[in-house]
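Justification of resources, computational component.

The compute hours requested in this renewal are based largely on the per-chain cost of generating structure records like the one below. Each record pairs the submitted sequence with a full structure-token output. That output is archived, and it is also reused by downstream analysis tasks.
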Amino acid sequence: MGGPGATTFKAVIPAPIMQFARGFFMGAADIVPGVSGGTVALILGIYRPFVNQIRAGAHALKQLVTGDIGGGIESLKHIQWMFLIPLGAGAASAFLVLRGPMKTALEEHSELTAAAFCGLVLASCWLVWNEMSDHDGVRVAVAAGVAIAAFVLLGFQNGAVSDPNLLLFFLTGAIAICAMILPGISGSFIMLMLGMYAAVLDGSIPELAIFLVGATIGLGAFSTVLNYVLERYEQTVLASLLGLMIGSFRVLWPWPNGVGYTIEEGETEVTVPGTGLDLWPDLGSLAQALAMTAAAVLFTLGVVALAARLSEQPIEETVTV
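The structure output for this chain reads:
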């Protein structure tokens, strides 16, 4: 409480706790198909250090695998583990905390959940467009071409994959993790496109372990390539991501069953098919979905604006008691 005799001191939030919180926000963004973990890292001002540390880890892993044990150990010593470990712990915590509610939402409110996903991705399209500094004909053509290709290709995928094997969990992890490096596209968005979103949310411990192994290997294998492409062709990459998200609305169509999900009936796992563009809802359902989409857009833009303001604040804050 302020007043005469009040003591003012500096309350310093420990760096690991701040890093854990950043990781949690990144993980939360990646489990919900919307703003990506890469975008959150960009907003929080840790994007380049994050990519650089991942590249350093990939380099050390490569040395160890190729037999350069001494060089690999030396490289590991130069990695900022107090940067990466709390960040990873925060992201993992977000997954464990949010996967239950997301699974429930998919099963019990499938259409409204898909409508919310539409709003999140729509907001991401706007954010990526604003992130692009070049809006010339070439980038517009790239975005349009990728959007059309994605729309057509996603027509061959009908929602959730039925009874995926461990290899599919491994490949999904290897591909989806790359979205954490790319600003604008989330890992869960990739899982949705692959039809693996519900399966990962409901995965068993062995399945999630294989998913994590795939994610680790994928991140190590592709981080250097992705960073190289981003540094030299950033605007074209962003245009491609924009097109990919626009084309993805084919699998985000809320009716009849949202994006698809799996449920257990006794000892049998049943897959409920996902979307179908040939089905239109009644006026009441459409109005509810549009309201949910608009709310998701506003929520996403609000969170991004708040995160941008918080990232400008120093870690230290003055507290008066």
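The longest helix spans residues 205-247. The two ends are 4 Å apart (CA to CA).
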